[in-house]
Amino acid sequence: MTPPIISVQDLNVGFSLRQGVVDVLHGISFDLHRGKTTCIVGESGSGKSVTARTILNMVPRPGVINGGRIEFTPKDGDTVCLTELDPRGKEIRAIRGGRIGMIFQEPMSSLSPVHTIGSQIIEAIRLHRDVSKKEAREMARDLLAQVEIPTPDKALDRYPFEFSGGMRQRAMIAMALSCRPDVLIADEPTTALDVTTQAEILDLMRNLQRDLGTAIMFITHDMGVVAEIADEVVVMEKGHVVEQGDVHQIFDTPRHPYTQKLLGAVKRLEEPAAAKVRPPADAGPILTVDDLHLHFEKREGFFQRVTDVTKAVDGVSFTLKQGEALGIVGESGSGKTTVGRCIARVYDPNAGLIDYRGRDLVKAGPEVLRDTRREVRMIFQDPFASLNPRMTVQQIIAEPLVVNGIAKGQELEDRVAHLLREVGLDPAMMERYPHAFSGGQRQRIVVARAIALEPKLVIADEPTSALDVSIRTQVLDLLLKLQAERGLSFIFISHDMAVIRYFCDRVAVMYQGRIVEIGETEQIITDPQHPYTKALLSSVPLPDPKLRGTRARHRYRPEVA
Amino acid sequence: MIWRYILKRILWMVPFLFAVSVVAFLLIQAPPGDYLTTYIAKLGESNEVLDQASVDNLRARFGLDQPLYVQYFKWVSNLVQGDFGMSFEWRQPVSDLVWERMGLTMMLSFSTLLFTWAVALPIGIFSAVRKYSIGDYVVTTLGFIGLATPNFLLALVLMYIGVVHFGADVGGLFSSEYQNAPWSWAKFVDLMKHLWLPVVVLGTGATASLIRVMRANLLDELHKPYVDTARAKGLSEFALLMKYPVRVALNPFISTIGWVLPNLVSGAVVTAIVLSLPTAGPLMLQALLSQDMYLAGAFVLLLSSLTVIGMLISDILLVLLDPRVRYD
Predict the structure, then answer these.
(1) Burial A389-409 (b: 16+ CB within 10 A, else e)
(2) Is A102 on the interface with B (CB under 8 A)?
(3) SS3 assignment, position A518
(4) What is the pLDDT of residues A497-506, one digit of tens each?
(5) Domain B96-323 adopts which CATH fold?
(6) Residue B225: closest C-alpha in chain A
(7) Which one of A176, A300, A405, A421 counts the least CB within 10 Å of its CB?
(8) Domain A1-99+184-189+223-270 belongs to what topology?
(9) How far is A335 from chain B (nearest CA, A)?
(10) Is 70 exceeded by the pLDDT of residue A289?
């Protein structure tokens, strides 16, 4: 057996803070092998990203490597100890990008906004290879072709903001591969992407690895992705490696309780929640949406002529029953979020009917809207951005009550305490500010604020996609509990089929502003009718490595009329 | 594409400048009385009294008896033909007076702008990269002192130091022997000897604030993911810093041209008087005091135009520098 290309031995990394050095990695060890993919799995805060950066000797400040070593053995060279190199020195810079490439999570912000794609790739090539600008440009074009970017010649001169997220991540991969590195480190490369795009990127990485024999270190928190792509798995928790081994062994016989918990959280999302309360069959409708249209117009020129119309919502109709949870699923840009915002009248629809308990919200004036907004509340995706950092939790939750003049003084405090208890938080914490809470706790605060006015309808826009898997199910269970206790109706917007399956009674699949299919969740998932639904379902990674390669994945392309 | 954008921006300046001219005219008309009342008061001080007939005569000659809008249209239609009118006080065409002063003012402004940038940029970068180091604290402290010190005070202190300790000839932009001499190399050298003082005095405040702007901008950019990406490519720290975060942080820096330009002209009035600089500031102050309306109007209009032009320049530079701005 050949020696591992990268060997992490007893690595310890600490952050020097005012209180002294706090360790974030506690003596971790693992190996990467040529031509193999090693997945590093763990939830946020487990030290995955710090590990990746330490391999390139790029420990973010104020971190310091205070123990252990990382050895790098290239095919044709001697072993180098990466951790002993000067982090600003020539040797490590030759390895960064040259021998070890890295892909980052956020394709939006990981490329410089003011340089063309081409110039950023050409720079990477010319840093490590002695080639002319023209040669480098040709190499860059070939790389873009290799990562399946259409018209690579033109793409070289485009700026990142002119690309979609998936295209940017492709460009990022092309850049990381530009010098044929021996090792590719990918830090959550698909987390910010749609399932369909994720599937394509995973395929691409697998093909490239087959052709180039690169060792890949793939960081993710998604067990489905692990099952798709991993050969070896390293499970991390709070800076420790708790378990590592072959992917089949990890999935079939996980030994450590944390691994079991991670897998359990994923498996639970494989089926509808056990605790789900279905609405009674004779429940009346709470919301009827009929032929809803919303067009965004781009205006240009002196006279503000309309030059381009985007049909964000293009004739959407559905009915929501009392106590029912309707999922809206689709990829980014399909208009699912816009539908939700139209119902809350954040946006003003151009045409159509939104009948909420006999009131037409499209034509409603400010009076009616104010009343309605007490009963129709929203939950947003990012629990970090949707809470005002300068308000205490008590102020945040009390705000809708105060604004609507419902309670004050002691009564207000009691209600806030009651709400906190209801979402599973300790009322003693109400004096704290949002930054003192974890992502899952913050989302609970958001839920508490949403239910403060005892709404009848909650529009939840990707409420769990910013959360770790194990916390995801907890928040979903909380919403289920509230639904059962209060008879809440939900419109649940998500791109994640598993979450929809767990939570929703019915699901509407949206594509380019239209609903292409709507029906009972189980029926749609087990027997999709529309080709787009089929394509969408085929992209969802299955959390079982044995099923790898059993499905033909395809992207839906509407027939050109 | 870019030419269309520039053309469009220039076309937009036309209605804007028209609006500015209305406001400028109203502004100089706003104080009670006109040039004649000031003139009569001045004559009164030396015990000369004008009879009503000659006052009316003068008023008719200057066109001051006509309604406001007529005066305005006369002014504007002359403006369009390049005629700024006559200064009441100087009995000279306004354009001659203004251009005489404007040349030196512009030179002083641009020297100050260059000085400001040349000092603020490296110090701002240093201050951000070595955040909370001793050097950063020193620079920050100096910056706040610079912000807090009024220009005229700094001018007085520097003049004192210059005269007492170095025996330098301070005040004005030329030594007396070159005052009315034609341009020559010696005159230029003489100008340079005098120029440093007003440049330092005028530039200090702007430099201090630009250092703060640069530091804050760069601190925002330094930890963006694309910096990590560039580092992972194997770029050296210095090349990395200059090519990526500094480049992005420059945007707000460029926008400052817009307000720095007019500020240099009007904000320097007190300093220019203290240093007795032959620039536009003191002349404008005098014109406003004596309600010399065509001269004052020309200055107000010029300042506004400078603001608009400064904005235009910074917008065009921004478009060239940041591809995201291009498609309005």
Answers:
(1) eeebbbebbbebbeeeebbee
(2) yes
(3) strand
(4) 888 888 899 9
(5) MetI-like fold (1.10.3720)
(6) A110
(7) A405
(8) Rossmann fold (3.40.50)
(9) 24
(10) yes
Domain ranges of chain B: 2-80, 96-323
What residues of B are in contact with residue A88 (Cβ under 8 Å)? 236-237
One-letter amino acid of A128: H
Contact call for A96 and B229, based on CB within 8 A:
no
Structure tokens at B24: 């400028």
Domain with CATH 3.40.50.300 in chain A: 1-99+184-189+223-270, 285-542
**What amino acid is encoded at A187 in this protein?**
D
State mean pLDDT over A94-103.
Answer: 89
Q: Quick one: closest CA in B to A59, which residue?
A: B228
* pLDDT attached to residue B192: 80
Could you read off the pLDDT of B25-57 as tens digits, one per residue?
A: 887 777 777 777 777 777 777 777 777 777 788
Amino acid at B46: S
Please, which residues have CB within 8 angstroms of residue A553's CB and are 6 or more apart in sequence? A199, A203, A538, A539
Q: Which residues pair with B242 in a beta bridge?
A: none
- The alpha carbons of chain A give a radius of gyration, in whole angstroms, of 25
pLDDT band at B265 (very low <50, low <70, confident <90, very high): low
**Strand locations in A188-254 (E):** 215-220, 232-237, 240-246
Closest to A148 measured CA to CA, from A197, A215, A76, A83: A197
Please answer yes or no on whether A58 and B228 come within 8 Å at the CB atom.
yes
Say if the Cβ atoms of B234 and A110 lie within 8 Å.
no
- For residue B246, give Cα distances in angstroms to A112, A118, B243: 11, 20, 7
Give all strands of the β-sheet with A285-300 in edge-to-edge order: A305-321, A285-300, A351-356, A359-360
Residue, of A505 and A17, whose pLDDT is higher:
A505
Tokens representing A295? 């067009």
Selecting from B229, B321, B322 the residue whose C-beta is nearest the C-beta of A104 gives B229
* pLDDT (0 to 100) of residue A560: 43
Kindly tell me if the per-residue pLDDT of B328 is higher than 50. no
Write phi, then psi, for A72 (nearest 5 degrees).
-120, 120
For B291: left if phi > 0, alpha if psi spans -120 to 50, otherwise beta; the answer is left
Is the dihedral angle over the CA atoms B172, B177, B182, B185 positive or is it negative? negative
How far apart CA A34 and CA B42 sit, in angstroms, is 95
Chain A environment of B225 (Cβ under 8 Å)? 104-106, 109-110
ipTM over 0.85: no
Domain A285-542, CATH class in plain words = alpha beta
**Radius of gyration (C-alpha) of chain B in whole angstroms:** 24
Whether A552 contacts chain B with CB within 8 A? no
Give residue B308's pLDDT band: very low, low, confident or very high (50, 70, 90): confident
Residues 6+ apart with CB under 8 A from B159: B170, B171, B197, B274, B275
- The single residue listed with the structure tokens 């070159």 is B178
pLDDT digits (tens, 9 = 90+) for A222-259: 888 888 889 999 999 888 899 999 999 998 889 999 98
What is the Cα–Cα distance from A313 to B157, expressed in whole angstroms?
68
